[in-house]
């Protein structure tokens, strides 16, 4: 079945840029997503990208998609302590039954002052 | 602006007990999903539904049953709880496309 992989942990200094990487296996992915989860909280959708795009920018967030390599990244500019959280990459395909979301295991980002 | 509501928010069960988690959405979405979240494993799909009266198995369905008798409700049942089912459970809904709405989660502990 579909598989989504992420590195487990990222440490970054406040004010620097963070880059979180994700790889996926489903060549029919339609949308790719980044979610944020703070401790004890639910999932917050940060951004998503349609599979025929290669970049999307939204304020401090930049998403890059390399469809050939099935690689997705999220860059957070000027990282703040409030960006400390777990970030999940996810993908969905309209060709898959039920339009299911498949998640990676999450990357824990720690922002140091 | 309710979106997706999950009840209860917290629950402690003894091994062998049964319980039902309720998910309700008010957006008239066709698709609904139950996920479980465990540390380091992201969210894994338990069961899903593509419409009223339909259900299907996801990635980790064993030990769970679901029902979608009404379009707005998706129930997740544990017939005989086991410690391995200690987890945080999230419900979500979708109307095709990219828009998924998640509930705030149910934290379940089985002792």
Strand content of chain B: over 45%
The portion of residues forming beta strands of chain A comes to over 45%
Q: Span between N and C termini of chain A?
A: 41 Å
> Biggest interface, which chains?
A-B, 24 and 26 residues
Helix content of chain A: under 10%
Mean pLDDT of chain B: 95
How much helical structure, as a percent, in the residues of chain B?
A: under 10%
> Taking all residues together, what is the mean pLDDT of chain A?
94
Largest sheet of chain A: 6 strands, mixed
What is the number of strand segments of chain A?
11
Low-confidence stretches of chain B: none
> Structural class of the helix and strand makeup of chain A?
mainly beta
Oligomer: heterodimer
State Rg of chain B: 13 Å
- Low-pLDDT regions of chain A: none
Q: How many separate helices of chain A?
A: 0
User: Number of DSSP strands of chain B?
Assistant: 11
SSE succession of chain B: EEEEEEEEEEE
Descriptive keywords:
heterodimer, A: 113 residues, mainly beta, six-stranded mixed beta sheet, B: 111 residues, seven-stranded mixed beta sheet, four-stranded antiparallel beta sheet, 11 strands
């Amino acid at each position: 079945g579909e598989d989504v992989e992420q590195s487990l942990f990222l440490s970054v200094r406040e004010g620097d840029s963070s880059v979180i990487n994700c790889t996926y296996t489903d060549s029919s992915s339609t949308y790719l997503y980044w979610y944020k989860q703070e401790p004890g909280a639910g999932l917050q959708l940060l951004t998503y990208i349609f599979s025929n795009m290669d970049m999307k920018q939204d304020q401090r967030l930049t998403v890059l998609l390399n469809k050939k390599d099935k690689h997705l990244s999220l860059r957070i500019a000027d990282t703040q302590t409030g960006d400390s959280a777990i970030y999940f990459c996810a993908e969905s395909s309209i060709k898959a039954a039920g339009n299911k979301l498949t998640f990676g295991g999450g990357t824990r980002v720690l922002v140091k002052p | 602006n309710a979106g997706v509501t999950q009840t209860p928010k917290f629950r402690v069960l003894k091994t062998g007990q049964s319980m039902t988690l309720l998910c309700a959405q008010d957006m008239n979405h066709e698709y609904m999903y139950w996920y479980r979240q465990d540390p380091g494993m992201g969210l894994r799909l338990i069961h899903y539904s593509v419409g009223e009266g339909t259900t299907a198995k996801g990635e980790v369905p064993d030990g769970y049953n679901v029902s979608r008798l009404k379009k707005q409700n998706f129930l997740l049942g544990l017939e005989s709880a086991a410690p391995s089912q200690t987890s945080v459970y999230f419900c979500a809904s979708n109307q095709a496309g990219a828009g998924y709405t998640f509930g705030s989660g149910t934290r379940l502990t089985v002792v």
